[in-house]
Amino acid sequence: MSYQVAVLAGDGIGPEVMAEARKVLSAVEERFSLAIEYTSFDVGGAAIDNHGCPLPEATLKGCEGADAILFGSVGGPKWEHLPPNDQPERGALLPLRGHFELFCNIRPAKLHQGLEHMSPLRSDISAKGFDVLCVRELTGGIYFGKPKGRQGEGENEEAFDTMRYSRKEIERIAHIAFEAAQGRRKKVTSVDKANVLACSVLWREVVEDVAKDYPDVELEHIYIDNATMQLLRRPNEFDVMLCSNLFGDIISDEVAMLTGSMGLLSSVSMNSQGFGLYEPAGGSAPDIAGQGIANPVAQILSAALLLRHSLKEEAAAVAIEVAVSKALRDGYLTGELLTSDQRNQAKSTSEMGDYIAQVVKEGV
Ligand SMILES: NC(=O)c1ccc[n+]([C@@H]2O[C@H](COP(=O)([O-])OP(=O)(O)OC[C@H]3O[C@@H](n4cnc5c(N)ncnc54)[C@H](O)[C@@H]3O)[C@@H](O)[C@H]2O)c1
Ligand SMILES: CC(C)[C@H](C(=O)O)[C@@H](O)C(=O)O
Ligand SMILES: [Mg+2]
User: Fold this and answer.
1) Distance of CA 154 to CAs 82, 158, 161, 250, 338, Å?
2) What does DSSP assign to residue 11?
3) Residue minimizing CA distance to atom 35 of ligand 1
4) Which of 71, 126, 217, 314 is the right S-S partner for 121, CB 3.0 to 4.6 Å?
5) Neighbouring C-beta atoms of residue 185, cutoff 10 Å
6) What is the number of H-type helices and E-type strands within the chain?
7) Which residues are known to be catalytic?
8) Contact at 8 Å (CB) between 110 and 159?
């Protein structure tokens, strides 16, 4: 029996980095004798161009029939003139998250020893390293709350979004965070804005209640504004960061950059049945798309997460992660990880993919 994976490469650097993830997956399949069948579907801007809508029925059906979704990224200036709900992000990515109830988004950010020089942190801070797991609620909050819209005209025209959280939504993501912490350094930092937002007051109360089931895990609360600065000052003191949808979006970009680049952060978005969509935390990077310079590591590590969580192929996932670490340690770095005077040593997107695939095949 072979596994079925729906591949949605999307826009901008999506197809470029997806090609490298596929190379690495082929290598791991060969080494571990796995049988994985991939079917590609258009999504986002590519689907608008080819089919007139960002999430065609065939794409949705293809995802429904798969064991997991490997997603690239969607969006870009070409489609920004469209009505908001017809654009790639709100017309494809958010509906996919909603349709499959992918409420649990996990984004692991680790600054590896020996790779501290890639971080923009001050050297005495980066020297301590850090290992943060961002656990982000993904199908609620201000992203999905109703009503949402615009009304009125002239100087009275206004726009509004609704931030809304139910006890149930907070409980289920909080359990994920505490369970994850039990397998790590046993600390949950819950990020909120309880000094201003009603949703955050409920968030804090529910997280406190859930914490009672995990007496071995330390819980602390922090306001989002303070969290963004403490991450720059003492990132090594954070373990699991439990965030609502919007705050997790912000925190995950920050921790990605603290490891050196947006192009290093992988992610899984999962539902309660364990069905998952795997994607880099970053976007379609229109500023570098088409140049063969994007960092494929986030997409490759997302493939490793797919092997681990959806296909339960732990050894194959570890082989990829070890190969990525080796490549980075061996100085295989794309340009954004280098200073301007080192940039002539930069590896291209495909050189990175080739090297990581080779290491996977040979084993380390
Ligand atoms: N999951 C997704 O599909 C997703 C996620 C975030 C943003 N987006 C969309 O992507 C488009 C661009 O958004 P943005 O510019 O705000 O965010 P972005 O993450 O695409 O880019 C931010 C910065 O990070 C850099 N970067 C990102 N990934 C990189 C990689 N793999 N290698 C090297 N550098 C990388 C980019 O060059 C850019 O300078 C928008 O349309 C946005 O809505 C999509
Ligand atoms: C593209 C956008 C809708 C998305 C989000 O805000 O969730 C992205 O920024 C992410 O982090 O996955
Ligand atoms: Mg984001």
Assistant:
1) 22, 9, 19, 32, 48
2) S
3) 263
4) 126
5) 14
6) 13, 12
7) 143, 193, 225, 249, 253
8) no
Q: Which of 112-149 are b and which e, b meaning 16 or more Cβ less than 10 Å from the residue's Cβ?
A: beebbebbebeeebbeebbbbbbbbbbbbbbbbeeeee
End-to-end Cα, the chain, rounded Å: 29
Residues in contact with ligand 2 by the CB-under-6-Å rule are 75, 89, 93, 249, 281, 283
Q: Residue 258: what residue type?
A: L
User: Average pLDDT of 330-349?
Assistant: 94
Confidence check on the interface: ipTM exceeds 0.85, yes or no: yes
The residues lining ligand 1, judged by C-beta closer than 6 Å to any ligand atom, are 13, 17, 73-76, 89, 93, 261-263, 279, 282-288, 294-295, 298, 336
pLDDT, tens digit (0-9, with 9 covering 90-100), for 77-87: 999 999 999 99
Percentage of residues in the chain with pLDDT exceeding 90? 97
Residue 334 DSSP SS3: coil
